[in-house]
Write a structure and sequence with these properties.
- This is Chromosome partitioning protein.
- By secondary structure, the chain is of the alpha/beta class.
- Helix content is about 40%, strand content about 15%.
- It has one domain: Rossmann fold.
- Helix 1 (about 15-30) crosses helix 2 (about 45-60) and helix 4 crosses helix 6.
């Protein structure tokens, strides 16, 4: 059975597609067979990232490790069982097809609540939630009192993860390993970073996730997307001398891959 990684966050702009591409490509570079799905059927940022990578390789005549991207299959409404949701069928067919010969399946979810996203979360062996390092995005996980920082209750997204965990338990599946990434960390605002860190650590014990290091805010990520490249590809495409920022970013990716604790993965990037 393939290990299913779901990248989910119901707010846009947290870097889901960047995280998805770097994790999928890192696994592919290690020799793992990786299948990927993009459930944002309108924007398809992750799918376009993979397309950009394929186009770059064709244009430049280079070979780069490539995850296997597939679209959700079309399903005729008449083929559905009574009461069956068409999106459930499309997602289950795509996952069943990929599971036959893939070590990992990575699913990138849209930045909104959809039926596809809800079902994908119930399939997750590992759930990665990138989170901008601010209390605006902290609200994705829990409602809190801005005066004293007390947690008032779980967010709608956290409740969805809880429901996904319940469904997996009822089906006799292993629990979801939920990893929250502190993403787009800035070099300044040390007081805010400290408060965010404390709040996340306290919340993690209450609703059951692990906190892992994500990526700092760097210009390089905006430059990589149009060419479909990742931090690990820079030397392969002729960048002989990496600057300090690029080296630091590659180390952040190594730290992330270690923190994910994926089965059968030995991190040597």
């Amino acid at each position: 059975m393939a290990h299913i990684i779901v990248v989910g966050n119901e707010k846009g702009g947290a870097g889901k597609s960047t995280v998805s591409m770097h994790v999928a490509t890192a696994l592919a570079r290690m020799g793992h067979e990786v299948g990927v799905l993009d459930l944002d059927l309108r924007q398809k940022s992750f799918g376009r990232y993979v397309d950009n990578r394929r186009a770059f390789c064709d244009r430049e005549g280079v070979h780069l490790a490539m995850p296997h991207y597939v679209e959700l299959p079309d399903v005729d409404q008449s083929d559905l069982e009574p009461g069956e949701n068409i999106y459930d069928r499309r997602l289950s067919m795509a996952v069943a097809d990929l599971e036959q010969d893939r070590d990992f399946i990575l699913i990138d979810c849209p930045g909104s609540h959809t039926r596809l996203s809800q079902v994908a979360h119930s399939l997750a062996d590992t759930l990665i939630t990138p989170l901008n390092d601010s209390f605006i995005d902290f609200d994705l996980l829990a409602r809190h009192d801005p005066a004293d920082g007390k947690i008032l209750g779980p967010s709608i997204y956290s409740e969805m993860v809880w429901n996904a965990r319940q469904l997996r338990a009822q089906a006799g599946l292993p629990p979801i390993d939920w990893v929250v990434l502190r993403n787009r960390l800035g070099a300044q605002q040390m007081h805010n970073k400290k408060k965010m860190g404390e709040a996340l650590e306290n919340l993690s014990k209450r609703i059951g996730f692990r906190v892992a290091p994500g990526f700092s805010e760097r210009v390089i990520f905006r430059e990589l997307f149009p060419r479909g490249l990742t931090l690990l590809d820079l030397r392969d495409v002729g960048v002989a001398h990496l600057n300090i920022s690029n080296i630091a970013a590659r180390q952040e990716l190594r730290d992330l891959m270690v923190a994910l604790r994926l089965p059968g993965v030995s991190v040597e990037l």
